Amino acid sequence: MSLAALNSPPLVALTGLGIGANLSLIDQFALTSPWNVVRIANLVSYGINFMSVQRPGRLDGQASEGGELAPRSGKTLVAPAGWAFAIWGPIFLGEMVGVVAPFFIKESAPVVEVLRQTSGPFIAAQIFQSLWCAAFRPKYKGWSMFVSTGFLSATAYSLSRAHAVFAANSDKYSNLEYGIFFLPMALHFGWTSAASLVNLNGSVSMQEGQSTKVIKYVGHLSVLAASALGIYLAKERNAPVYAGVIAWALAAVADGMKKRLDSVDDSDKKKKKASVSVNLDGAKTQYLLSKTGSMINALGAAFVAGSMSASSKAVPKF
């Protein structure tokens, strides 16, 4: 039986619910198992996710092919410009280093205590993202499209749990260890937070007969929520990296809306407004909200990083 045959919405959704119901057991496994077992589990979960991402046919391919999710010609108002997805390179490369490096440190190292606490959420995040790769496909139609939104949100939630741990235990690792083990997770957390909203808006916009008014309001609220979350976590957790990633994502959304607006000439604007595939309703407001949110988060990230440097006379870690 092929993997495609096993990929049914009910089965995949139930698998995700089962993982979610056992997060505490995954955490306990990482805290109590032999260190070698934990290291191998991190490596294996990363490998599963990496291989899942490589399988073609996901809906995000539409963004590069001018489909319904495309910045220039689509329906959704949360459609980042293509350059935004370059962040996956540092995330995957960084997490690859992060799951290999523990094999070269002793279990007695202070950072191991933090790694054990973050390993459970990290493993869960890798599994949830693998399930997202299965769910973000054309066979998921109608309301089943929101299954992928749930998985990406679960990925961000799991990474948030890991982020909370290493943000609260900065005295147990060096700046170098932060860069190796935790910076990639911080990037991943920020990007999946934004990507969850991208996914949500894509699912909303692709519902049959969806009104542009609903798409518009969901898009505007998503940008406002991302902007507020970036600033809130930057302040509460001393997390300039998170706010910086949100700034990056919102700048990409603003660029996507600018491309959409610029692609419409005055002479054929009315015609394209009536198009089924191109949505201009609220695009200008979305551009302004995204650009403003990006600037606020960039300034917030710089302020928090500067405050941390001034108080500790060290390179900020979060």
From TrEMBL:
Keyword Transmembrane helix: yes
Keywords assigned: Membrane, Transmembrane, Transmembrane helix
Transmembrane intervals: 82-105, 117-136, 143-160, 180-202, 214-233
Name of this chain's protein: Uncharacterized protein
